[in-house]
Every structure is written in structure tokens, then in C-alpha cells.
Design goal:
The complex is a heterotrimer of chains A (327), B (293) and C (242). With 327 residues, chain A is mainly α. Helix content of chain A is 75%, strand content 1%. The model of chain A is unreliable at 1-16 (pLDDT under 50). The model of chain B has no long low-confidence stretch (mean pLDDT 86). Chains in contact: A-B, A-C. Chain B: Its main location: membrane.
């Protein structure tokens, strides 16, 4: 079976783009972005771009569990930090390069997600959300007390000045995150049109009715938590290389958890495109605010925009564009 | 006394004092989250807002901070009633509270905190009531009034509230409103009005807790963050809608944290409390001190 | 009528705290049968369905469906084995269209090798059976009460069940709507589906049931020919007297 015919079942398809069109478009977009940034020739642009892309991936990952399955994860920062610290630990222990560290982060994040999924079997709604928050605090405490990765003082990561054929290390990181973000969005989009997506939507709307309709809710939830956890950890894996220095305060920053929720909601939770729009908009806004005003102002922006959208446009920007009658 | 034992006893006693502060911060949430089913994630931020208001009022008028908190309570009640009105209008009425209501309170939390940063700056604030520097000693055991006075006031307030909920008609309506709104309608009580009134009380409690908090420790606009997990954990462990369960859970939380900090260092104390919460959630979701649903 | 025994409940008991919701229920249902299950509110009817469907475990006894014990099977596995139910209050998937609502059990049901196109066609056929095909593209929030109940049944029969439990499918429906719903259930039964009808609408139960079972306070107090059962002293007391 193909995703395409299955998507045809939906009266309102998730944006009218076929498989080939999506991947082709994504590839073109990537090339255009890299080419454009090279023309700009500004080292800061790569870092700003990385900042936004990392949120695209984080928001997309959160959306797989929160938007598709309806399980709110308050502990996104915990998953992201697990990815970041996987890199720090593996680099220090075995001197591994970034790419294998990212793969390892995906595995560990996935395992942690699977563990969270075990909680989701027993806990519904807000209890699950609180459990994920606790999990993040627990992980934070462990990292603070783990002196191998620097404990509360943090750890410095020496990174190469550049990796050929990239002009700078900033460009390299940007491209890595770009590819990861496209893969993440592609996975989310694939889920949305598939049998899995339909089953998750059913269990999000009514878990008991879904069970009665033959949906193996238990297995689907585990798939969603695992995928979501793996992708969040991947979003964090290059963080230490990006900042050059990683401490628990930065890795477990509340801004990650809040943005992971706010971005999909503002863009449109439950659609693959929503988190992308939300992340690009909010992250750009925050980048701009950090540069021009203050870091307090950027959180204020997130707060105000979040309240307005939650109240006035619960289906997010994607919902506004579609103008659907249904909620 | 054996020094190890003295350390333990002191840790337990200061844990109980810390726990009564936690109880103050969590009691309002036991009403909004436990009884009304409103996931007010901004509750700790409202506590911090209360603390800042107390700093301003007690500093400006030269009043005792706890007295200032009591004077401010009606204002916080109004604020709470206002927040509930908006929440009800946009979310509860539409049956949309799960995801978007949560997002709403998340946003409110950030608006309060960042607003505080913009008005007061990111610096720490504190108050210095006359009793703050007095400590009673019983042998090896210390009893600082800086902890004892706010803790005792908090427990007294919660006791009075519990009495109110148990004995008055409105109080019992509040306890019943989430379980059975239809029954209230049959008694010609508007559940929305009851919930607005009760949510106002919960926010007024947040304001009072802020007064207690700022007596105990200096606060900054972000102080609420360390309480988010704790207060929800306490309400859940306490069995949601039970004020007595909430107080017991808060005391247990305080003691567990302090004993861990005394023996293994303060950096481990969150792990014990939150580990306990995860275990409770996984194996006994109805809470340690609650009845089976 | 008298096919082999499809469902057997053996001493099924369920407690909530100290409250005994079901007290050692024994019940046999034959393949192809139309069974009515009645009882006052709180008599344990819905608890019985929930235990049967696997929403929560029974404390005592067991269900044997089609020769297989059901203990420990997750609800969706029971659905795959041919046990379908509707809910007392309709529980549609609100973010999915009517057609998609019915597609879900087809995608995840016993015949999950079905291709999406096939699933869609089958779902449409199910909707036609319940006369809801015209609303396939709409969303559940746009449906009337009777259409929501039709959707419940369409979603249940999409599992191609051997046993369908219709939990108060007629509640709140008008006279004509009840008649339509009855006709639908008769048709399903004629096509080979065994049906347990849980109902308060007496006229419908009397017309539909070949056999009538009465629960009172968690006990089965009667089981037999509908007219005889309804004439029994105990049943009348349970319903009218107090």
C-alpha cells in the first residue's frame, strides 16, 4: 500500500503534495537555503539558521506524540538534553565524531521514549504531562551529579574550525541540522497519511472507542513515544557543538519545553506542516528579539502569541489557512 | 545528642517547616486542579506574583509581610475570577480544555514572569520582618521563626479553608462541582459561578502563599519554576481533591528533600522527590493519601 | 435459531470497592440469536458489556467466546475475534470524517491486509447499510443524534462481528427513528450477526428479542421467553414497584 492512496481517503488531504513532490521540494529548498546563506557569507546566519532548524525538528518530534496521539509532553527539554549529553559523553569516552553521536542519541532517546510510553499506558491526560515533567527533573538531577560530563559546571567541546567541503563549521552544523529536520518532517508527514496516523488520531479522539474498533492502542502509543523521543534527542545531539560549551542549565532550559509545545500549537498541532510554520515563525521572532531587545522579551512574545492563538485560533495557522469549519 | 542523629532530627524538622510552605503553595492548586479539574500550570507564577506584591506593599506601607498578604488576598481573588472567566469563555465552554487550556495557562505563566522581569528586573527581592532573625534553640534542634511563622500561618489558613469547605453550603458545592455539575443545577446553583468563586479562592491562596514564601527566602521572577513540578506532585500524591492529603504529601515531600540534602548533598534532593512522584504515578495514580477512584 | 453456543459467561463477578456491580452472572448466547438484556439503571448491564469487551477485568468467572476463553485479551483483540459493541453515549472520532470513522476498524480490524482503497469501499458499504452514505464526508459534530447512533453501529459492523452488543442504541430516539433502528438490527441479524440488545425502550425489546434476560442489582433474575419474563412478578417489581 502506498501513502498516497491512503491519503486520498481524506476529504481534506494534508496539503496537496505527493511523495515525490515533497521530497523533491525539500531537496530544492535545502539547496536554495545553503546557496542563499553562502551568498550572504555571514557566519552568524548559519548559527541563526541552525537555531531555527533545531526547533523545527523539536516541534515536529513533540507533535508526533502531542499532536497526533494527544499526549502532552512537558519534558521536551529532558529528551533534548539526553541527546546533547549523549554526544558529550561519547565524545569524551571514545572521541566519536558528531554523526555517530547523533545516531546513538536517536537510540537512547528512543529507549527513553519507550520508557515514557510505558507510563502512557497507565497515565492519561494531565498525569502523563506531569510525569514527563518529573522525568525531566530527574534526568536534570542525574546530569548535575554526573561528574564525567562536567556535572553542574558543564563541559567544553573543542570543535574543528571547519570540515571540508563546508566553508565553516557553522555551515556544517547547519547542513547537518537541515538534513535531520527534513528527515523528521518527512517521518511526521508519512505518519500523518498512514494507517498509523489514522490509528493515532482515533486514540487521540477517544481511546476506549478506538480499542473497541480494533485499534491496538498500546502498540501505537509505544511507537509514537519512541519515535518522538528519538527525534527530540536527535534535535539536541549537536547542541554542544553548536554552543561549544554545555551545562545542565542550558541543556535542560525551560525554553525548550515551552517552545516544543507552543510552536506546534501556534502552527497547528496534528498536522505535519503546523510545527514547521510555528517553529520558523517563533524561532525567528525569538532570534530577532534576543538580538534587538532582550531574552526576557522573547519569552514574553511566546507567552502572548501562545495565549492569543490558544484562545482565538485553536487549530493554529494551518487551521486559519484552511479555514475549516471543523475543530 | 549524637551528631548524626541531630543532623537527622534537624533535617526532619526543617523539612516539616519547608513542607508547610509547600503546602501553602499547593493548597490553591488542590482546589483548582484537584477539585475544579482546571490544570492551572501558572499557579506557581501567581505565587511569585503574590510575593512581589507583598514586597511592594509591605515595603511601601511598612506593614508586616504576612498581614500585607492578607490585605492583598481580595485583589488576588478578583484576578482569579477574571482568569477563570476568560478560561471558561474560550476553553471550558467549548470542551477544549485539554490541550489548548493547558497552553493558555502556559502562556499566562510566561506573561506573569516576564512582566515581573520587565517591571522589577531580574534581581532577587526579600522582606525583613522583625522576627526574621530570631531562632529558638532546643538543645541541638533549631527552630528559626523565619520558617516557623509563615509555616504555621499557612497550616492555619489551610485548616480554616478545609473547615469552610466541609461545613458551609458553598464549600460543599465547590467539592461537588467537578464530579456532578448536573446535581448542582438541580439545586439551582450555577456551576460556572461556583467554579469562578472557587478559582478565585485558589488564586487568593496563591497570593497568600507568596507572602509566606518571601518571608522564608528571597525571590526572583523565575522562582516559580522550581515549584511547578513540586506542587503538582504534591496535589497528585495527596489524592487530588483532598486538602488534608495535600498537607500530608507536602510535609512528606519537604522531609524527603531535606533529609536527602542533609545526607547526600542538596543537588540530589529533587531526584528523590520526583523519583517518588514517578513511582506514585506509575503504581498508584490515585495518590498516596487518596481513595481509589 | 438454535445454533451452537457462541458466548458463554461463567460466574462473572465485578466489584467496585465494596459495591458489587455483577454477582456471578451465568449466561449463554447461541449463534444467530437475538437476545434482549434489560434491567433498571445501575443493575450491571453496562458493567457486563464492559467486562465482556475487556475495558476492565472481571473479578471472578470468565467469558468464553467462540470456544476461546477471553481472559487477559486486550479490547482490540476481542474486536478482532468478532466481538463488537456500541457505546451508550456515542463516542465518535471527532477529528475524522464519518467515512474515516468507519475506515479505522477496517484498517486495524481482523482483515488488516485490506488495501486502503478496499477499506474505503468497505467503509462506504457499511455506511450504506446504516443509511449514512450521504454523510460520508461530513464530520461527527454535524450529525444528529440518530445519525450518531447509526455511525456507532456502522463502526461496529465494520469489524464484521459475529456478536454485536448494542448498548442502548435507541435511547432518545423518536418513534419513527426507533422503528428504523429496529429494522436495521433485524437486517443485520438476518445476515447472520448474533445481537445482544441492551435497552430501556420496552416496545423495541419486546419486538426484537427472541429471549429476554433481566438484571437487577448485579444479579440475573430472569432468563427466558420475553412474554413470560415480562409477566413475572419479580420483573414487574423491579421496574414498577419499589
Amino acid at each position: 500500500m502506498t501513502v498516497k492512496t491512503e491519503a486520498a481517503l481524506r476529504p481534506r488531504p494534508a496539503l496537496p503534495a505527493g511523495h515525490i513532490a515533497f521530497w523533491g521540494g525539500a531537496a530544492l529548498l535545502c539547496l536554495a537555503l545553503v546557496a542563499g546563506f553562502r551568498v550572504l557569507d555571514n557566519e552568524y546566519a548559519w548559527f541563526a539558521g541552525y537555531f531555527i532548524l533545531q526547533y523545527v525538528l523539536l516541534a515536529t518530534a513533540w507533535n508526533i506524540l502531542g499532536g497526533y496521539a494527544g499526549y502532552v509532553n512537558f519534558g521536551a527539554a529532558g529528551f533534548l538534553a539526553v541527546g546533547a549529553y549523549t554526544t558529550v559523553a561519547l565524545r569524551k569516552a571514545f572521541g566519536l565524531d558528531l554523526l555517530p553521536c547523533i545516531a546513538a542519541a536517536a537510540c537512547i532517546g528512543g529507549l527513553l521514549g519507550l520508557g515514557t510510553g510505558w507510563l502512557a499506558l497507565r497515565l492519561k491526560g494531565v498525569y502523563f504531562a506531569i510525569a514527563t515533567l518529573s522525568l525531566a527533573v530527574l534526568l536534570h538531577t542525574i546530569v548535575v551529579n554526573w561528574s564525567f560530563v562536567g556535572g553542574s559546571r558543564g563541559a567544553y567541546v573543542l570543535r574543528p574550525a571547519s570540515i571540508p567541503p563546508f566553508v565553516s563549521y557553522g555551515e556544517y552544523l547547519f547542513v547537518v541540522m537541515l538534513v535531520l529536520a527534513v528527515i523528521g518532517v518527512g517521518i511526521a508527514r508519512g505518519i500523518e497519511g498512514s494507517r498509523l496516523g489514522m490509528g493515532l488520531a482515533a486514540l487521540r479522539d477517544d481511546e476506549r472507542a478506538a480499542e473497541a474498533a480494533g485499534v491496538p492502542t498500546l502498540r501505537l502509543k509505544l511507537v509514537a513515544t519512541t519515535l518522538s523521543g528519538a527525534l527530540m534527542a536527535v534535535a539536541g545531539a549537536p547542541l554542544s557543538h553548536y554552543t561549544g560549551y554545555l551545562n545542565p542549565e542550558a541543556a535542560f532550559g525551560l525554553a525548550f519545553s515551552v517552545n516544543a509545545i507552543a510552536m506546534p500549537l501556534i502552527g497547528g498541532a496534528g498536522t505535519w506542516f503546523g510545527p514547521v510554520i510555528g517553529a520558523v515563525l517563533l524561532a525567528s521572532l525569538q532570534q530577532a528579539a534576543t538580538v534587538t531587545i532582550s531574552s526576557a522579551a522573547n519569552l514574553m512574545i511566546v507567552g502572548v502569541v501562545l495565549v492569543i492563538f490558544a484562545a482565538a485560533a485553536p487549530r493554529g495557522i494551518v487551521g486559519l489557512i484552511r479555514g475549516g469549519r471543523h475543530r | 545528642m549524637d551528631p548524626e542523629l541531630a543532623l537527622l532530627v534537624n533535617a526532619i524538622i526543617s523539612g516539616l517547616l519547608l513542607g508547610s510552605l509547600y503546602a501553602a503553595a499547593a493548597a490553591g492548586l488542590a482546589i483548582s486542579f484537584g477539585m475544579l479539574d482546571i490544570v492551572n500550570i501558572a499557579h506557581p507564577a501567581l505565587v511569585v506574583l503574590g510575593a512581589f506584591a507583598v514586597v511592594v506593599v509591605s515595603g511601601g506601607l511598612g506593614l508586616d509581610p504576612l498581614l500585607s498578604a492578607v490585605l492583598l488576598a481580595p485583589g488576588f481573588w478578583l484576578l482569579g475570577a477574571g482568569i477563570y472567566t476568560a478560561y471558561h469563555h474560550f476553553f471550558e465552554r467549548r470542551g477544549d480544555q485539554a490541550l489548548h487550556g493547558l497552553a493558555f495557562f502556559f502562556g499566562v505563566m510566561f506573561i506573569i514572569e516576564v512582566g515581573l522581569v520587565m517591571v522589577f528586573g531580574a534581581d532577587q527581592r526579600y522582606v525583613d520582618p522583625s522576627y526574621a532573625s530570631i531562632t529558638y534553640y532546643f538543645g541541638d534542634i533549631d527552630l528559626p521563626l523565619r520558617m516557623l511563622v509563615p509555616g504555621a500561618s499557612a497550616l492555619a489558613t489551610i485548616g480554616a479553608l478545609a473547615l469552610y469547605l466541609r461545613t458551609t453550603f458553598t464549600g460543599r458545592a465547590i467539592a461537588a462541582v467537578a464530579q456532578d455539575p448536573e446535581a448542582l443545577r438541580l439545586l439551582a446553583i450555577d456551576p460556572v459561578r461556583i467554579k469562578r468563586f472557587a478559582f478565585g479562592i485558589s488564586v487568593a491562596l496563591a497570593g497568600l502563599a507568596g507572602g509566606a514564601l518571601v518571608v522564608v527566602q528571597p525571590i526572583d521572577p523565575w522562582s516559580g519554576h522550581v515549584f511547578i513540578g513540586r506542587v503538582f506532585a504534591i496535589v497528585i500524591m495527596g489524592g487530588m481533591a483532598s486538602l488534608s492529603g495535600c498537607v500530608l504529601a507536602a510535609l512528606a515531600f519537604g522531609v524527603a528533600e531535606n533529609v536527602t540534602a542533609a545526607f547526600y548533598g542538596p543537588s540530589w534532593s529533587p531526584a528523590v522527590a520526583f523519583g517518588a512522584l514517578l513511582l506514585v504515578l506509575a503504581f498508584r495514580p490515585q495518590g498516596l493519601f487518596g481513595r481509589a477512584a | 435459531m438454535s445454533g451452537e453456543i457462541l458466548l458463554r459467561a461463567e460466574g462473572v463477578g465485578k466489584r467496585f470497592g465494596g459495591f458489587v456491580a455483577l454477582n456471578g452472572i451465568d449466561l449463554e448466547v447461541r449463534a444467530g440469536e437475538r437476545l434482549g438484556l434489560i434491567g433498571p439503571n445501575g443493575s450491571g448491564k453496562s458493567t457486563f458489556v464492559n467486562c465482556l469487551g475487556g475495558s476492565f477485568p472481571a473479578h471472578e468467572g470468565r467469558f468464553i467466546f467462540d470456544g476461546k476463553p477471553m481472559a487477559g485479551l486486550a479490547p482490540h483483540r476481542r474486536g478482532h475475534l468478532g466481538l463488537a459493541r456500541t457505546f451508550q453515549l456515542p463516542r465518535p472520532f471527532n477529528s475524522l470524517s464519518v467515512l474515516e470513522n468507519v475506515t479505522v476498524p477496517l484498517l486495524f480490524g481482523p482483515a488488516r491486509e485490506t488495501s486502503p482503497a478496499e477499506a474505503r469501499a468497505r467503509a462506504m458499504a457499511c455506511l450504506e447499510q446504516v443509511e449514512l452514505a450521504g454523510r460520508a464526508a461530513q464530520h461527527p459534530r454535524e450529525l444528529t443524534q440518530v445519525d450518531l447512533r447509526r455511525l456507532e453501529i456502522a463502526r461496529a459492523i465494520a469489524l464484521r462481528p459475529r456478536l454485536l452488543v448494542a448498548d442502548e442504541a435507541m435511547a432518545g430516539l423518536s418513534h419513527t427513528e426507533v422503528a428504523q433502528m429496529l429494522e436495521l438490527l433485524f437486517r443485520l441479524n438476518a445476515a447472520g450477526t448474533t445481537i445482544i440488545m441492551i435497552e430501556h425502550v420496552m416496545r423495541a425489546v419486546r419486538e426484537f428479542s427472541q429471549r429476554l434476560v433481566v438484571f437487577v442489582a448485579g444479579n440475573k433474575i430472569a432468563d427466558g421467553d420475553p412474554n413470560e419474563v415480562l409477566a413475572m412478578q419479580d420483573v414487574e417489581e423491579a421496574y414498577l414497584g419499589r
